[in-house]
Amino acid sequence: MNFYVMTLFPEMIMEGIGVSITGRALQKEIIKVKAFDIREYTNEKHGHVDDYPYGGGAGMEMQAQPICDCYDAVMREIGEKEKKPRVIYLTPQGKVFNQNLAREYAEEEDIIFLCGHYEGVDERALELLQTENVSVGDYVLTGGELPAMLMIDCISRLVPGVLGKDESADIETFHDNLLEYPQYTRPPEYKGLKVPDILLSGHHANVEKWRREQSIERTLRVRPDLLPEAKLSDKERKYLEGLLK
Ligand code: ADE
Question: Taking the domain 171-244, which CATH number applies?
């Protein structure tokens, strides 16, 4: 899978993605990440990529020209494809990224990200590039680089071969729209706190049942908004109803 990132800080993207699991996937060429420096495409003689907003107001806007020319360079790199790659503009004004969107994006061959800076981007660039506007949460960051890295990380781990066989993407938080159950490793007792007996019992079916119940309890306590979409068996639904009484 190929990620192309249009940014004013290409080194930030490459340094962030070049380590840990994504770094290994890059080396193995299971994913490719290429950052394009928007500043290299400006026609402005001093290298400016931003200007004051028409109509007044605080801050500066990124101009359409360098972004559109940078996009053309990305498209030349991608070459002729049947389908226009999705172009994601990172902005708090977008739809909120989540695991379902990550699964959808992981099916793509190429994804292009546009990272904004300053107060925003000239709307015409977004129109011309037909961007999908995506937010990573209801808070405001200084630019789109961290959100792009966050999305690349999240999408990459769903690409076959990126996670090792011990790093499953199936049994985890948001699987079935539930939070993950509590996990423990050795020793069996630490600072007076014991690992729940059931996990030491070796009884696989009981362990599974306990984990599902823990997931349901935790989701109810921390993220009840996830429960209407949670995939529960009839028994599990009864268990949840019992917790609500
Ligand atoms: N740029 C600034 N804040 C952002 C956010 N919350 N999500 C995506 N892009 C952003």
Answer: 1.10.1270.20
Protein residue with least CA distance to atom 5, ligand 1 = 92
pTM over 0.90: yes
Give 194 Cα–ligand 1 centroid separation in angstroms: 41
**pLDDT tens-digit series, residues 90-106:** 999 999 999 999 999 99
Ligand 1 contacts CB of residue 90 (under 6 A): yes
CATH number for the domain whose boundaries are 2-156: 3.40.1280.10
Provide the pLDDT for residue 123: 98
pLDDT band at residue 167 under the 50/70/90 scheme: confident
Q: Is 161 left (phi over 0), alpha (psi -120 to 50) or beta?
A: left
Whole-number Å distance between alpha carbons of 28 and 49? 35
Looking at the predicted structure, is the pLDDT value of residue 151 above 70? yes
Pocket test for ligand 1, best of 95, 136, 146, 152 (most atoms within 8 A of CB): 136
**Does the C-beta of 16 come closer than 6 Å to ligand 1?**
no
d(CA 6, CA 147): 13
